[in-house]
Design goal:
The complex is a heterodimer.
Chain A (H helix, E strand, L loop, with lengths): L17 H6 L4 H9 L2 H11 L11 H6 L12 E6 L8 H8 L1 H14 L4 E6 L4 H16 L15 E6 L9 H8 L23 E5 H13 L1 H6 L8 E8 L5 E6 L4 H7 L9 E5 L8 E2 L9 H6 L8 E6 L4 H15 L5 H18 L7 H11 L9 H15 L1 H10 L6
Parallel strand pairs in A: 1-2, 1-4, 2-3, 5-9
Antiparallel strand pairs in A: 5-6, 7-8, 7-9
Helix pairs in contact in A: 2-6, 2-9, 3-6, 5-7, 6-9, 13-14, 13-16, 14-15, 15-16
Chain B lengths: L3 H11 L9 H12 L4 H7 L7 H8 L13 E6 L2 H5 L2 H12 L12 E6 L11 E3 L2 E3 L4 H13 L1
Parallel strand pairs in B: 1-2
Antiparallel strand pairs in B: 1-3, 3-4
Helix pairs in contact in B: 1-2, 3-4
The chains are: A alpha/beta, B alpha+beta.
Chain lengths: 423, 156
């Protein structure tokens, strides 16, 4: 089984040096891109590969790039940004790439930057990833010294600079336009779209924001071609995926597997449930995805199939709920998170999420009232898609609406018995 | 007033951004590194170099989780309270920390040694429960392990 993204990562995660990275074929994608391919040819390769965004939304990467104005008249400077603000609860996959193989991201930024003729790149890194920060600073410095960054890269006439920005912590920084505001030194509130960042992003200039795992696939596609990339997958969504598992499984961790590996197989990689516990459900891709349950163990974990099952692939790092853990309390924890991290920019999110969290707290503490479940269900509509400025509140409603669907009896017991049956 | 060292570090960051205010989060972090937290005085010191007003800067400072607008202890404990850590026993970790330090979340010990803050997912979910003290991760926590960690830091 091919593991092109993580094949060079050492078991202790000590980062590859420039020499080590080069010795495994590293920086060859830049040579190929700059000497043999035009920017539009790279975008075409990415389109053909069917690479979809690994940050959670699953938007086709090549299509996203194709909206950037090109040619002499295009506004300058243009920017490319790696979203390394991995703050989705239960998600820890980009960290593996950032710490274990930082040059892969640096090379990815250069090749992707060339594809849209970007002048400047930023890696937007979350504050907590101190080890990744050290690895990336060193990798960027080494890449400059080797002539892969800076003016007239490898004599191609293409110039590109790369900078590292470390955040000060807030979930909203992971939202594309919130990230742009944060990078401009503002609160990470979302922006209205259109205009989209591809035409008017950082400082009002054309900007592409891609997730770390998404970008790291680009050098591989340039080196090996789109057919190879599609062949890595078990389904129509191209490539491999870094899946993960947390919760009460025997061996929590991360595994690079073919895209379309089933939920049940990922659980097997995690060693199954801990002794004495049963699987009740899982959030397939972070806190803002709908629960999947026992009936879904055969679901292929790609964008299309998970969506057909009523959830989203999201980040592909599953969070497992066991039978000795109260689902109401788990959802209460999630909604507390979303209420706290709401930026307060739009009313439904600012007011609705704390209300949701308080209702859940009351139910969990045995103070739930008849009608509370209907009220929660109403919130899942009122805070759903189309009612809010960005995707935070609709994302927050996904675990809640699916918990009401699959664990409705457990919610009802809390209200009827005026206590949490798990305590 | 900014010290020479603070000014030097902030000016290095200003070069990384097209517009000065772009560096304001980095500048706040630099000042916090030197002063422990961001006081009203610090905002006034910092605003001119970023071509912002102190209020504009406060608008940013109060938004981000890791900019402290109140004094904190010598060491800041960030205990993850998000879902994976919660599933793996966050509540017992919190109870142990609050009883051992004899403070509640958001408080600082009487000797000024530790501040205890809840923190959103730290991205180390296969090693839950997790906390950070200053810039170091502590993983796969249990009460005994927490005692050992705090004993070591206390002795420094």
């Amino acid at each position: 089984m091919e593991k092109p993204l993580t094949k060079n990562i050492k078991s202790d995660r000590q980062p590859l040096s420039l020499e080590e990275y080069e010795s495994t074929g590293g920086y060859q994608a830049i040579v190929k891109a700059l000497k043999e391919l035009s920017p539009s040819e790279i975008t075409d390769l990415v389109k053909k590969s069917n690479l979809k965004g690994r940050g959670g939304a699953g938007f086709p990467t090549g299509l996203k790039w194709s909206f950037v104005p090109m040619g002499e008249d295009a506004p300058r400077p243009k920017y490319i940004i790696a979203n390394a603000d991995e703050m989705e609860p239960g998600t820890f996959k980009d960290r593996l790439l950032l710490e274990g193989d930082p040059h892969l991201l640096v090379e990815a930024m250069i090749v992707s930057g060339y594809a849209i003729r970007a002048d400047l790149g930023y890696i937007f890194l979350r504050w907590a990833y101190k080890d990744a920060e050290k690895c990336l600073r060193k990798a960027i410095q080494e890449a400059y010294q080797a002539g892969y960054l800076g003016k007239n890269i490898l004599g191609s006439g293409y110039s590109f600079d790369l900078k590292l920005h470390t955040s000060a912590g807030r979930y909203m920084c992971g939202e594309e336009t919130g990230l742009l505001n944060s990078l401009e030194g503002k609160r990470a509130n979302p922006r209205s779209k259109p205009p989209y960042p591809q035409t008017s992003g950082l400082w009002g200039k054309p900007t592409i924001v891609n997730n770390v795992e998404t970008l790291c696939n680009i050098p591989l596609i340039v080196n090996n071609g789109p057919e190879w990339f599609k062949g890595l997958s078990l389904t129509d969504d191209g490539g491999t995926k870094i899946y993960g598992a947390s919760g009460k499984v025997k061996r929590p961790g991360l595994w690079e597997l073919p895209m379309g590996t089933t939920l049940g197989e990922i659980l097997e990689h995690a060693g199954g449930m801990q002794e004495g516990l049963k699987f009740r459900g899982a959030l397939p891709g972070g806190a803002s995805t709908d629960f999947l349950v026992q009936d879904h163990l055969d679901v292929k974990m790609d964008f299309t199939h998970v969506q057909e099952s009523g959830s989203r692939l999201g980040t592909g790092t599953i969070i497992v709920l066991d039978d000795k853990t109260c689902p109401v309390a788990m959802v209460q924890n999630l909604e507390h998170f979303f209420a706290q991290e709401s930026c307060g920019w739009c009313t439904p999110c600012r007011e609705g999420l704390p209300w949701t969290a308080k209702l859940l707290e009351a139910i969990e503490n045995g103070q739930g009232q008849p009608g509370d479940l209907e009220l929660l269900a109403a919130h899942t509509n009122l805070l759903g898609p189309g009612h809010t400025f960005c995707a935070l509140a609709p994302g927050a409603m996904e675990p809640l609406q699916s918990a009401l669907k699959y664990f409705g009896d457990d919610f009802q017991r809390h209200i009827d018995e005026k206590r949490c049956p798990w305590r | 007033m900014l010290t020479d060292q603070e000014r030097k570090e902030i000016e290095a960051e200003l070069k990384e951004y097209e517009y000065k205010r772009g560096a304001c989060i980095e500048a706040l972090k630099i000042l916090q590194q030197h002063r422990g937290w961001i006081s009203d005085e610090s905002l006034k010191d910092l605003a001119p170099i970023l071509e912002m007003t102190p209020d504009e800067l406060d608008n940013v400072a109060t938004f981000y989780n890791l900019i402290f607008r109140k004094p904190v202890g010598k060491h800041v404990i960030l205990v993850c309270d998000s879902v994976s850590c919660w599933l793996m026993g966050y509540e017992s970790i919190r109870e142990h920390l609050t009883s051992r330090l004899d403070i509640q979340l958001g408080e600082t010990t009487a000797d000024g040694e530790f501040t205890l803050l809840p923190m959103v997912c730290l991205g180390d979910c296969d090693h839950a429960p997790v906390m950070m003290i200053d810039e170091t991760y502590y993983r796969d926590l249990n009460p005994d392990k927490i005692d050992q960690i705090l004993d070591t830091i206390d002795r420094d």
